[in-house]
Write the structure tokens for this entry.
Amino acid sequence: MNDKALTFNELFDADFLSSLQRFSLQAQRVVRGGRSAEHPSKALGHGLEFKDFRPYSPGDDLRSIDWNIYQRLGKLFVKVFEEQQDLPLYLLMDVSASAFLEQPPRIHAALRAALALASVSLNQHDSVGLFPFGSDLQIKVKSQAGKSSLARFAQHLADLESGDQTDLGAAMRKFSGLSLRRGLLVIISDFFDPGGVQAITSALKDCRHRLLFVQLVRQSDRDPDLQGELRLRDCETGAATDVTVTPQVLRRYRQAYQRFNDALAAEARKRHAGLLRLDVEQDVVSQLSSLFAGGSLRV
């Protein structure tokens, strides 16, 4: 098992980045307190989008007075504009040991998806954070902004190493404790938490952010090529189980896997979250296209 993901040169590919230019993120409204960017916010001030009028108060900028209203009514009113600010993007990356197994390992698609989303955000003046997790959450990048930051962010991704076992609950508890400004939280994982979907549901119970699930899948998840007497070992815990794989066992496994997928989809619907099942053996950008309907992802 490799403990490294992709090299910087493998990840920071010009053709790959160029193919992302047609994508954009569009937030209906962002929480005030951010930097000037492209999303409408709840803040009212000196933005570009006219919102309303309000009576003049001492200290208001005289340039914001509407003199046409003054001429008609003899009272001073100022124009109030909707400020446009950034949408923070937070990337929670599953770097547990299982992400680095198989060929190609899931971490390769995960890194490309993370870089793609970061590229879209940075190109439209949003901020990006990177939080890899296994059994614990790391704070790799708390907040990074600016188009020129993309290469540095790609290097952070390329430097990620294999962790231990998955514990989304512990990761989310630590992430929530950071008290970050509300934004878009993207969880990139296979979501195979030892606690099952219930653990995922509990982990997200108090999440204040808008959510996007990027589920890393491959065909063998549903249809494993296994048969006969086997000893299966958990790559993250080392626990081993002896099983006899028969057609009946495979049928029950597929049913359990379908229930898992259905439960994850139901959780996404309940939280009005996006869900992208990303086949790690297929092209990442073409699959992202289904998420960015018409070129934009609205959150």
